[in-house]
Batch of 2 targets.
Target 1
Amino acid sequence: MTQPTAVPTASRGRFITFEGGEGSGKSTQIKRLADRLNAARLPAIVTREPGGSAGAEIIRHVVLSGMGRMLGPETESLLFAAARDDHVSELIAPALARGTWVLCDRFTDSTRVYQGEVGKVDPRLIRAMERVTIGDLKPDLTLLLDVPVAVGLKRAAARRGTEAADRFESEALSFHEKLRAAYLKVARDEPKRCVVIDADADPDTVAARIWTALRDHLFAVAAPRESAKA
Ligand code: Z5A
């Protein structure tokens, strides 16, 4: 595999978040990217939200079981924020500080979209929670994996088989359409940080698109074109 001709020079690791609706392929692609970075001798770890640290995984269980929903959207948002606070301080910030790249499956944009835009939680509360939980720790790059809702839900249902849908999977089609529109709005509002990846393609093609986005946005000097062929 061809390695990038130049990599970021700063010793801090890079922070890349993956966002997108149900079944958009985040987990599949985040693992592939980590493998590729590690093969290029860029140490990278994969983590996820809600979760990623011991305390946050406990909260994950509460929110995905649907128990948080009974408390109302504001309190549910606070649960996501509490999980993020633990995750950032226990795992993300220390890893970045020692030069490890952190690839995170969902982050603050999920709160903005699920709880904010779609759940109608006051944007001032959403921003305040962001300030408290992440401070200046913004992602260097956010990859928004975009697929038509029907495609994502079909993939998720196939993966789930006979298991019951979780708290968010069981929402109506209109909810997922709103999510998609809200994500695309986030990307339009922050074009320097966010790249929309057309994820309605086979996994190899999507991986190549992601690598191109990294090359264009994170590596100081563009890698040769062949390096996109993972
Ligand atoms: N949430 C929130 O409300 N607020 C917040 O602040 C945060 C989260 C942080 C976490 O769910 C839920 O929490 C999430 C938002 C909410 N809601 N939902 N639903 P999760 O962690 O359990 O799951 P997820 O993040 O939603 O992931 P996912 O949609 O279940 O899947 P994915 O990671 O995007 O996709 P995947 O697992 O890689 O792929 C799904 C299936 O499709 C699988 O069988 C693959 O083999 C297949 N696949 C993948 N790529 C392809 C391609 N390219 N072609 C064909 N098939 C593919």
Target 2
Amino acid sequence: MPTPLEKWVHQQAELTKPDRIHWCDGSEEEARWLMKVGMEQEKINGSPVFYLLNQNTWPHAYLHRSHPTDVARTEHLTYVCHPDKETAGPNNNWMEPEKAKKMLTNLSNGCMRGRIMYVLPYMMGHPDSPFAKACVQITDISYVAVSMRIMTRMSKKVIKKIGNRDDFVKGLHSVGDFNPEKRFIMHFPDEHFVWSIGSGYGGNALLGKKCFSLRIASWLGYNESWLAEHMVIMGIEDPEGNITYVTAAMPSACGKTNLAMMESALPGYRVWTIGDDIAWLNIGPDGNLYAINPEIGFFGVAPGTSSKTNPNMVKTLKGQNFYPTLFTNTALNIQTNEPWWEGFDVPAGDNMADWQGKAWVPSSNKPAAHPNSRFTVSIYNTPTLSREFDNPKGVPISAIIFGGRRSKLLPLVVEAFSWQHGVFIGTRSGSETTAAADHQVGVLRRDPMAMLPFCGYNMADYFRHWLRMGSKMKNPPKIFSVNWFRTDEDGNFLWPGFGENIRVLKWIIDRINNRAGGRETPIGIVPRPEDIETSGIDISKEKLEKLLSVDTREWKDEIQDIKKFLDSFGRKMPSEILAEYQKLYNQCV
Ligand code: GTP
Ligand code: SPV
Ligand code: MN
């Protein structure tokens, strides 16, 4: 008798018609074979899937070039197929599930012809964790198979764990012919099933990541009283050796990876990394909030990464522990066979290939690396890995931080008055957009809790869920907002950022411990300049005052825009959020 898993795989093979099926075991030997298949056999646009990089300077490193139309998440092709549209909410594209499946069945018929079907058994979360989930993804490209091995706990043991059960998390992925017209990322939350076709890009194709661990998991969390969030998890060690754990939600390419592994500019402080992208938050038996990172790798933004901005990431990328490390759509120094991107340690060489492999002309003003070029690397390589990383229970969270790119208006840091006020801050938060998704870059978009592209159900219900979670906790974490990106009149960042962000984290942990002052403003509690530790940093009082200023007159347009956004959720919007909005309005207008 075949198991439900075997039956499911067999059914998908009947539809997609691969040449053969390979069940992955997650071993290093297998990863070496996958790299070989990607270098010698599989093609994208006629070119190999992987190129070997200089192994002396970049051990275990390979370059991958995407199909040129396939370099970021495609939110307009991403659907959440609940039985009814209302459950999906105005924040999701929706299609009736049976109709969606019919369309995908047509697109998938024979889509794996001439290819290998890889079956990937993996866990999201530590296998000993009560919060972990057993999953299986099918894919037809070595890049996705090997990326999933870096990002998740892939092992044949998962097959045994699933045994005769049918409720494992299912993902069916095919790159199809990379045609953007035939590209869809579709979620069936009640079946724990993701079906993705036409893209090989991370968030569209590594189905354990945004698709399951956020969109579907957020829906599970709503029904089971937990939260799946687009958040960093980190420990901050003070000079006395106390470690405070916090999470931070920021939209894509807004500084999570940098924050999670920051090299502190303040002597005596250290940051310990638990996760840089996804947090699953559960209320523990003691009534406190605990966080686990369901992933074991980074899929991080390359441009701007250097020994100056993020020395621990450079060490991680050059680490030799885990095979392999992938670079996606970076440039290539042809002389040295090394990856390169804008903002890296060394200047571009004389003979460079751009992210598409074409000769790069520096005077063209086009970047050599794609702005959303990324690396995929094991978290076990990182020198800042927390010793609690594999703790199945997770770590207790004392603060939740919301961030984003706001060139104006928003102070460096704000503390919420209460959990409810903090949820409102999360709801109204937003960011100037980045290259991580396929849309215009640099325009303000409201992005509640940095979850707008990832919340797998109606966000008004999600806000109510957040409020409810607060009332279930004995000691809900304090909520803060941060903004590293405020600029002066000439568009220069006012705050040095990166390792200096520890000064803001210090204020946050001092506030938690009632050791720091602040002043009350209509938008929350903001530090006075003297409340921020400024020893060892060259920043003028004027700049600091500007960074911490709240000008209620400037808030008028913002408040209108917030109202418009809240109204887009109609009558479902919780009254508590509207009450917080009204308080802000009364104080500013
Ligand atoms: P996803 O992986 O897309 O979810 O994004 P992320 O939030 O992890 O993004 P990441 O940390 O990789 O940040 C991307 C960009 O933000 C890079 O270009 C960084 O240089 C820039 N950045 C990060 N931290 C800071 C900071 O403190 N100040 C400034 N000015 N830029 C920063
Ligand atoms: C993001 O876009 O937020 C990412 C990269 O972290 S992806 O996995 O592609 O979603
Ligand atoms: Mn992300």
